[in-house]
Design goal:
The chain is of the alpha+beta class. It has 18 helices and 14 strands. The strands form four sheets. Strands 1, 2, 3, 4, 5, 11 and 12 form a seven-stranded antiparallel beta sheet that branches. Strands 6-8-7 form a three-stranded antiparallel beta sheet, with helices on one face. A two-stranded antiparallel sheet has the order 9-10.
């Protein structure tokens, strides 16, 4: 453990400061496909009984009309966050008529690309803009890749904790700049160590054969319907033959907030030849929002993002530039198909200790060589993380995954202990012990457990559908109480009214609205 980390832990462990760690906030966004009883992609519209995907704060859609997204509020206790997520699932299942929520990250057997429905958000200008953005994603990357689902874990430390550390360290930057710099430091450490999350929680070692659409690949055949890699942890996070040439040159630097926002500002304003050739409109129909490397900043695919809650009409980059980083969004987590929510408290509590370690541990700037090593380590683990004797790169030297993982977990242990002292009990230490067991025995990892099921004779799709139906039974067995159900019904009705109001008040034409939106992107790049 570094001296800096020891000093910070000692400060936070003082009686007067210990309660700060119980004020960290957690939020979860869980994506999942709607499927029919045969495990085929649901081609039905987003159920109106779930409310408006445009205006409902907790139940929306991501890329496809069939790709639901459930969003919890930010809570101080991860157990409350998961309870919120469970309530959303229970409400959704009270409204899904003969449909199921697909249990893993990798999609069900998909129809041809043309048939996959893009999410619709109504006739308001902003609703149409969201639809055109998704048409652009289809044009640029294909619809198949957009049907992959994941879990996003949002995490923040209280501002008073940053203030305490800043004062103790005699840092004379503004509070906003110090906090932003420390979150960016967290992100650099996340880049260094996130391969560990892929080993521990990766749960997508196999996929439906149709996903590859007949393209060349290096996957192996497990059965006529299933492709896999024997030591993979998370094919979802591998390249799978999908290379975004436009984004290939875009590697935002996480050495400070300004360089990160500058690289994204440049990408949303720089034309990309293939997209220019496709154009924004064809036969009077919008094809994409613009012909730049990124249509909007959220198009950039990353494993973690610095975030700030946006005001109405404000762009994510504008919020970061104006008010700094408020929290991080971890985006590389697979859905665990054995868990009804796709995540459990053990995982959430370990993530808290891991992210706290990333935040408090010294975080030197990433030089080019280390930056490449971070990427290489991550890709090695997603493709063959369970391979016995797998070697990773650390400071130019080869190091065994198992040895490094054990060392990291030992370094994270004081963080888990501090969280337990702050909150009472030993839940974080228990969560850490569960991860130690996986490092000692790769057969305990979710990816190994998925393959163990498939090797008993089930195809990927048969396994996933069986799990989906088990989870449906779990949620339907314990419906929401009348009061919670009524609250969800009211929220759904309110969201539909909000959308109708938005559409009724709309002024001007969509082309002018889209042009103004594009101008706001270009203004960022000045």
């Amino acid at each position: 453990m570094s001296d800096l980390l020891s000093r910070r832990l000692a400060l936070l462990g003082e009686r007067a400061n210990l309660s700060l760690l119980s004020q960290c906030l957690h939020g979860i966004e869980r994506e999942c496909l709607r499927v029919d009883s045969d495990g085929q992609l649901a081609l039905t519209p987003h159920p109106v009984t779930l409310g408006s995907a445009l205006t409902h704060p907790q139940i929306t859609t991501d890329y496809s009309e069939a790709l639901l997204e459930f969003i919890t509020p930010a809570e101080a206790d991860a157990a409350v966050t998961l309870a919120d997520l469970e309530d959303i699932h229970r409400y959704a299942y009270s409204k899904l008529d003969g449909e199921y929520l697909w249990s893993p990250s990798m999609p069900c057997a998909l129809p041809d690309e043309e048939t996959i429905p893009i999410a619709r958000y109504g006739d308001s200008h902003i609703g149409r803009l969201k639809y055109v953005y998704r048409k652009g994603l289809a044009l640029r990357y294909g619809k198949t890749m957009q049907c992959i689902a994941g879990i996003h874990y949002n995490f923040s430390l209280p501002e008073s904790l940053w203030t305490l550390l800043q004062q103790a360290e005699g840092d004379n930057r503004s509070a906003r700049d110090y906090q932003s710099a420390r979150y960016i430091g967290l992100i650099r450490n996340f880049r260094r160590y996130s391969w560990l999350l892929m080993y521990l929680f990766g749960a997508s070692p196999a996929l439906d054969v149709g996903f590859m659409r007949g393209r060349p690949h290096q996957l192996e055949q497990l059965d006529p319907q299933t492709l896999y890699l024997p030591y993979a942890t998370s094919l979802r996070m591998s390249d799978l033959g999908y290379q975004s040439n436009a984004q290939a040159g875009l590697t935002p630097c996480y050495n400070d907030l300004a360089s990160y926002t500058d690289s994204l500002r440049q990408a949303v304003a720089t034309p990309y030849p293939a997209y220019v050739e496709a154009g924004t409109q064809k036969d009077g129909e919008w094809q994409q929002l613009n012909t730049n490397i990124l249509q909007i900043e959220n198009e950039y695919y990353s494993n973690i993002r610095p975030k700030r809650v946006t005001a109405s009409g404000e762009r994510p980059i504008q919020a970061l530039m104006a008010r700094g980083v408020q929290y991080v969004e971890v985006r590389c987590l697979d859905i665990n198909p054995f868990l009804p929510l796709g995540i459990d408290l053990d995982e959430a509590r370990f993530l808290d200790a891991f992210l706290l370690f990333c935040a408090l541990q010294a975080s030197p700037l990433l030089e080019s060589d280390e930056c490449h090593a971070c990427t290489d380590n991550f890709l090695a683990v997603v493709k063959e993380g369970r391979r016995p004797g797998l070697q990773l790169q650390r400071q130019g030297q080869a190091v065994g995954l198992q040895a490094w993982a054990e060392e990291l977990l030992e370094n994270i242990r004081p963080l888990a202990e501090l969280l337990d002292r702050s909150q009472g009990g030993d839940a974080h230490l228990q969560a850490l012990q569960a991860q130690r067991a996986k490092v000692a025995d790769a057969a305990l990892t979710p990816s190994a457990q998925v393959l163990a099921q498939l090797q008993q004779g089930e195809s990927f799709t048969q396994f996933a559908l069986r799990q989906s139906k088990q989870h449906a039974e779990y949620f339907r067995r314990q419906p929401l109480d009348a009061e919670r159900q009524a609250a969800f019904e009211a929220a759904a009705a309110r969201s539909l009214r909000d959308q109708a109001e938005l559409e009724a008040q709309e002024e001007g034409d969509f082309d002018s609205f889209a042009a103004a939106y594009q101008a706001s992107i270009l203004a960022l790049a000045v």
